[in-house]
Amino acid sequence: MSTGAEAATDGSNQNLALERCLEVLRSATNDSEQFAALLLVTECARAQELDDGTRHRIFDAVGFSFLNRLLFSRTSLDGCPDYLFRSLGLTLLACFCTDPSLASHPQVINKIPILNETLNISCQDDIKNLNSMIEDAYQCLTGILATPEGAKQLVSGGTISSLCEAHVKQNHGWTNALRILTSLLTSLPDHCWKIGCNELQCLLVKLSEDFDNIDDSHKFHLAEILPVFLPPSQLLIETSWGLNCLNHMSKALHKILSNKLSISQRDPVLLLAACLSNMYGSSWIMIDGRGEKTKFLSLLVNLACVEVRMSLEDPMPQDSRQAIVTACYTLIEMGIHECTKEGFSVLRKEQKLQLLQVMQEASAAVMYYLQQVGWERMEEPFVLASIRLLGAWLAEETSCLRQEVIQLLPFLVHYMRMWFQRAVFSRKQLKEASQMALLSSSWGAVWPGDAIRFLLPALCHLSAEEAPRKILISEGVPALLCDYYQHKWEIFSSEEGVTADRKYETQLSLQSCCGVFLNLVVTEPNLICQENCFVTLLQLLMQSLPVQLTREGQLVLVANISTLGLMMSRLLAASPVLQESYSQDFFLAVIKFLSRCHVVSAEPDEETHRIVLRDGYAEAWADISELWFLGVQAFSACLPLLPWLPSLVLSSGWLQDLLRILDEVSPGSIDLELVTALQALLTQLAQISVPCRELIQQHGGIEKANLYGMAALEQCLSKIL
């Protein structure tokens, strides 16, 4: 065993040897002398750890001109392997790349292609030295990766392809390939898939097959890294190879989770399942047979609910568990969707009831956690994740845990207001700095802290119930939502810096806001008249509808804006807003929306004509039918309040078209609900407008009323006569 003095002596001797080698290298007059000196330098570099200063001295002494000749030379010394020069060059390059300032040097970056080539070099002779070359190449790539622009340089330099090949073929150092790929995909997932899509497909196929087939501890390492290798788009669910990957992953996850696991084993498995659920809902679960698929789905949701309860019901919940609890939230959201979706479900009724019970218990744990520590931790992303899950649950169920929900409402309102105000302030700052694109960078379709968006569906339910509605009003939610709606509308109507996904999410938020406002209009009419924010909201609705009506694919939003504007106009008819010119533009747009709904079907093989829904309306009818009927009712109520409105109906041609339709179709093709709505409209027009009444009479109003069973209209016209 060497003493300290002996070790110091050895280090001193090595330093002296290196100094002599560097001196020889600097004074070399030809390639042979330089090569001999370089061999000595390489041995010294391999034999000891070098500090940055020494590396720089070697770098300066060697120079890139000679290093390039070593790396790219296709010849060698007599009796030596062909790759001797390259091996020597790679050893020196690996030495340099341990220093970040050298690893980012352009002369190192331009060596990426030869490093890529070296990873998959093959030779049956001198395997030991060949493997050493490959290890040096990996060390170089690792050094480059550690630099600020390293990941981008490697992806652009084609390293993805070489790393994937090395792993798929299990070439020497393939574990290093997987490690570097994991770092690259973590840093630049979209760029990696754009550059190396085909190679990453092959790699993911192998990883998923290995995950399904192997039974050692590497299985759990694969579970940990697989989320990084999932494509950022819906590629897996849209391709045969992708479905094959999902099949392998779901089978493996089912097999793993059916066994007893330690926490360290269970966590990465749940995280992978949550990642797949976040991207694909429950469609990624491809276990053969409905029974097995149901069993696995139920297992996932039950495990997630147990984890949430264990973590959040603890008086001192561990912050270290937040990542796994957030993953469990995703699995519970999948369960909520599966239990409440319309149409076919793999779950039977009794299975849904069982899952709803455990999800209710998990939601109770979330509410308990927020009630206990939410006020103190409002800055933490985990609180927002908890509120998102709670919003998903309350969107479907508000009657259970009713008292707990009511007690938590003040906190939820305060949280929504705080983050909304911060978001508005941040957006103004970004707008002033012309950096609007940053709003949709890392959070995608929402800005950080948009708790209102997550809770809007729940607010639609809560605002319809008296007790929670009173709390929402007392906490100032109506004014908050009016500001939120205006803020969202600015984003939605923006032509720049807003992605399609974000615009769609914003549209859904606007529609949900309209649902809350409609509840307030119906249940709290005095509030609408007292709060100035609703006058501002009505003004915005009136100005936005004419523009929105011209856009395709926005019929549901148009229906919401039209009906809400009409319902508010009934209550605010005396407001100056209704005297502005844009109010008439609004009502013309409303007339277009209401009047275009129904047309006469004139199929050649039909003896009689029927009234049918126009294309576009038919596709959206499930979402807009109630709004359309409520809109006709509200429009009828506005007629006596706005003296100029009947003449607008006449000039638009709506009344004429409606009477023509009633002339042409069979009375049996119109259902009772539509007859009732049209009767209210025609009766109101006949009562308050002489020109409208005369037009109705000219089209056989009394006969028509008798034919369609419109007793109120018939009575109105008879009295006037």
UniProtKB/TrEMBL annotation:
It comes from the Eukaryota. GO terms for cellular component: dendrite. SUPFAM superfamilies: ARM repeat. InterPro entries: ARM-type_fold, Neurochondrin. GO terms for biological process: neuron projection development; regulation of neuronal synaptic plasticity. Pfam families: Neurochondrin. PANTHER family: NEUROCHONDRIN. Belongs to the neurochondrin family. This is Neurochondrin. The lineage of its organism: Eukaryota, Metazoa, Chordata, Craniata, Vertebrata.
